[in-house]
Design goal:
Elements: H1 11-24, H2 28-58, H3 64-71
Length: 72
């Protein structure tokens, strides 16, 4: 089952969305769905990162570089 939602956007964003849709040959709704999925994935990653931050800090992993050094 699909759900329809309405979103208000300003004219500048509409122009950007329209030009991107025209340039890529994709529907505006496809671009919006993809953007929402991407943003929700970023939000989920940030939430996970924040929840494991205390454990990482207790292990001396304070920066992204510390993490990369450990896994490299």
């Amino acid at each position: 089952m699909n759900t329809t939602i309405s979103v208000r956007i300003d004219s500048e964003l509409d122009k950007l969305l329209s030009s991107t849709a025209k340039r890529t040959g994709r529907a505006k709704s496809d671009l919006v769905r993809e953007a929402i999925k991407r943003q929700l994935a970023v939000e989920a990653f940030q939430q996970l990162r924040n929840s494991i931050l205390p454990f990482a800090e207790s292990q001396g992993l304070l920066t992204d570089e510390d993490v990369w050094r450990e896994i490299s």
